[in-house]
Amino acid sequence: MTQAGTQFDRPQHWNGTWRFVIFFLAATSIWCLLVEMYGLCSMRLFTFWVLIPATFVLYALAVWDRKRGDGTLWRGVMIGSIAGLLAAVAYDVFRLPFVFSNAWGLTHIVPQMPLFKVFPRFGAMILNQPLEQATYPLSAHVVGWIYHFSNGITFGVMYVAIIGQPVRRSWWWGVALATGIEMALLVSPYGKFFGITVTALFVAVTLAAHLIFGAVMGWSTRGMARWRGDTFRRLAIEN
Known about the structure:
The chain is mainly α. It has one domain (13-238). It is 73% helix and 0% strand. It has ten helices and no strands. The protein has helices at 3-8, 16-37, 43-68, 72-99, 118-126, 138-163, 172-187, 190-193, 200-228, 230-238. It is globular. The two termini are 24 Å apart.
């Protein structure tokens, strides 16, 4: 029996139930912020008692599937994680000219906007520091950026859990999800909570950034699934 045959004879865990479990575990990252904004629980408490354990379980399940299953769940989680990270990087690179418009002499092209303002505040909440500080310590910046990229990575995992078979889905699905995230952001207390004035310009810039996030996530997910996904290709043919 070939190695591929042995792999395909193993249990297949990438079904509706397991995808829901993966989505649920990944969603704890963004829930961290939501429970704080809606006054349900502190971000610090949720991070240490829910997010960190859930993240451990998420990747432990992926490793378990790689060893005991056919590897599709493992690949789904890994592809989603990498795609989400790439999308988050692209998202931030697009925003750099706005954040450093004054320093880079770009004010005649793009306006200065405090689009990275929230990151040290994320860290401050997780570290139980005051939300508003004259100068944030390095620890708040580091933890805040880690949390930011955690959101990007887990959005990628949630996306793959939703679409199921990346090789059968257009990258436009990623754009649709990112647009939904932007709409949810706008109707949430996000702006008021962090003291951000939600102007038409802010909406336009953040929407453009989310569209880039979605496009990169959708494109890279589909590309990696085709490159690495003999199991995904087999499932696409069978279904």
